[in-house]
Amino acid sequence: MANPAQFLSQVRAEAAKITWPTRREVMTTTIMVFIMATLAAIFFFLVDLAIRTGLAWLVGFTG
User: What is the predicted pLDDT for the residue at 61?
Assistant: First the structure.
């Protein structure tokens, strides 16, 4: 196990290697997440609507 001073030195060396995204990259990624979440919500809404309509028809047809 390394001593605390050596550990902190290694932590600082690793932290220096971090590359942070630019503001534009963050905004682009955020917008893409919102678009994909909206598309997924629309897809699942349509699937739910189709299943609900199909089951209502089936129950109405048989009952």
Answer: 84
- Structural domains of the chain, count: 1
The verdict on pTM exceeding 0.85 is no
Domain that holds residue 38: 21-62
Q: At a CB cut-off of 8 Å and minimum separation 6, what does 23 contact? A: none
Q: Is the pLDDT at 1 greater than 70, yes or no?
A: no
Residue 25 is assigned to a structural domain of this protein: yes
- Gap between the Cα atoms of 18 and 12, Å rounded: 10
Instruction: Answer yes or no: is 55 within a domain.
Output: yes
